[in-house]
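Teaching assistant here, posting this on the class forum so everyone can see the example we discussed in section. The complex has two components, and the goal was to see what a joint structure prediction looks like when all of them are supplied at once.
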Amino acid sequence: MNTAAPSLADSNVEELRRQLRACLAPDCIIEDSESQRPYECDALTLYRDLPLAVVLPENVEQVQQVLQICHSLSVPVVARGAGTGLCAGAMPHPDGVLLSLSKLDRILDIDPLARTARVQPGVSNLSISEAVACHGLYYAPDPSSQIACSIGGNVSENSGGVHCLKYGLTVHNILALKVLTVAGEELTIGSQGLDSPGYDLMALFTGSEGLLGIVTEVTVRLLPAPEIARVVMAGFDSIDAAGDAVGAVIAAGIIPAGLEMMDRLAIQAAEDFAHAGYPREAAAILLCEMDGTHEEVDQHVDEVAQLFEQMGATSIAVSHDEAHRELLWKGRKCAFPAVGRIAPDYYCMDGTIPRGQVTYVLNEIHRLSEHYGLPVANVFHAGDGNLHPLILYDASDPLQIRRVEAFGSEILELSVRVGGCITGEHGVGVEKLGKMPSQFSAAELGQFEDIKYAFDPALNLNPGKGIPILKRCQEYRALPVRHQHD
Amino acid sequence: MTERSGLLDGDHSEAILAALRSAREQKSAVYIRAGGSKQHIIGRDCAATELDVSAHRGIVDYQPQELVIAARAGTPLSEIVTALAAENQCLPFEPPLFGGKATLGGTLACNLSGPGRPWRGSIRDMVLGVQMINGKCEQLNFGGKVMKNVAGYDVSRLQAGALGTLGVLTEISLKILPRPQKTLTLRYAMPADEAIETMNRCAGKPKPLSGAFWQDETLYLRLSGAASAVDSTALQWGGDTVENDEALWQELREQALPFFAGDEPLWRFSVQSSARLVADFGPMLIDWGGAQRWVRGDHARDQLNSAALDAGGHVSLFRGGDRESELQPPLNTAAQRLQQQLKKSFDPDGIVNPGRLYSWL
């Protein structure tokens, strides 16, 4: 994406480094390429690059200074949280600064009565829930990387997890942000109330992949921890039957806390890995979790188990205690590493589709799998239509890399064709930039571009990611060559 | 898919586009109007030529099992509510219907949500996609009909509260939810400060709370959900059960309670739910578990603003008063500049609803 990116003039690079050294401690700047290696990519390792410098500011003032320096020298800035992203959104820019926010990792304030917490962007998702557990509260969005992923990264990607249908995405669970603009100006958006005057910049910033500003503080909403959660696991002998059962739960007026589907290859890999008690012979399993008060959960667990039976489940298990519930989830939560054991590499896709299309889409994916000669294990947030096909391949084989990319691309186009989208929760980053025109028209992409210009006229924040910059190519050419994209 | 037959239903997006094009060519502006229920509330008066979009209405897609409905922006909410009720579903954000005049587009543009908002989300939280025509006269489609979509900026949600200043909304898709199996309301006599604390404490419990409001020294707590959970919680929490409670919440939602009557200015505080509002602005009605508070009368704007800031939020003149003045609180220079640049990115010539949100927007 930054193919035509000759280096900054050497004198500018020296000036950049000199100014960075003046505001940061020596151990907060990484300039040699060997030490930069851990920062060359995020969790999507297909895309790698090295920046001019990695900086790890220790406070907000230093973040501001770094931005001011980069702004004055017109140097690209790529923000990075914990590096668990799955779209190469945090891949460094070769002519830019990689801004790691990992040292801003303090929980600043917890207000149990108002049910909010004010945290720095480098705080891990899970540690928020751990810190507020003593008040009977928790932070609801739980991406599978929640042990490691940072809240700042969650905001930038609008992260989801397995509980989105009932509890929403990051955008539904945050109240306010402190951000720095590309020029280093401080801005507070959102409020301690449930809305704020003017345009809803919270909506715009959440999921903006570090293209509009740098998040330096997040106020999250906390929810009361449910009294109890129980899970019903059911096996089905066809994908169709499992898909129909999902529809039946919704039609019964039940909103499960989580509703997950796995297909045969995923079931078998997960079962071999976690010994969760999944039916290895099933074509698909559903994991349906209910949470709430004891009475409500008991009522809904009975209803769901009966429904699954009526819908032709070949096996049903209901968690009888917390340990059993965790075991039933363990297979699902380990699905990615479990699949990782049966192939050298896997490529995780992230399309979202209308739930009613699941059978058609999974059958199409199986057809494509045969066409490309690459096996696929499917893990599906069935409740909210978010599909994660894991394509198995060998990254040491260049031919397979090309095939896996083509296969992935076809899955995304398939998702759009059935009324869905190219990414449900992982983001566009570098990875899906080329797919944006399959979901959006030129005018829509142009509107995204104009929004980007409203916040970052020189295009220095995470350039080459998130939205393709097409329309103003002519104007672009007047800018330094470094700013060209695609 | 539910179909509604009606002579008025139809796709008038081409006519809307033509009207906008003509306005743009003539360098004139339009004021977007559908049901007219919010013409004199929430936003500033807008002197531009009226663009009536009420004919652009009708439900275009409703799939109960997908928990998604899509309708043209001019569709009256009452029509949507009726269609959903037939499938035992509802709009979880409980918008005011304003005598059947409120439309889907107007409700999103005003980001209007009722008493359940803190628990089941606002219309802003439920919007999945919008189709719109921006001020550049481009027909755009953002988001869609799926629950999760992080491709591109979230332009759909950005329309919530924008008061139509970014373009004309033409179609909106929303997440919907099943109607709760049972609803029950409890009543307690207590002063405001105790009510605020109680609302917040109750909201911190894992119980099926779905509404909390206070007026006339009385706190009302609504429970909704599985019958078993509602009944057991009511037993634990005590209080008097309110008869015919649906009417009470409807009057609150529709601003039909006596508190809202008359022409005196109506101010809306949107603040931290647990905040104490120290300054006295006369009788107050507290909704949204403490996060939305209403006061009446002529008050000094500075005093209101400073009280709202202390409470972690803001105050706006919802109805009445001087509607040519600024109704929203002032923003700092950097924030104001970004808002203006954002407006320009959608509507560079300022042809849609100029001045409706702020005089400078």
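For the discussion questions: The longest helix of chain A spans residues 398-417. The first strand of chain A starts at residue 29 and ends at 30. Think about how each of these relates to the inputs above.
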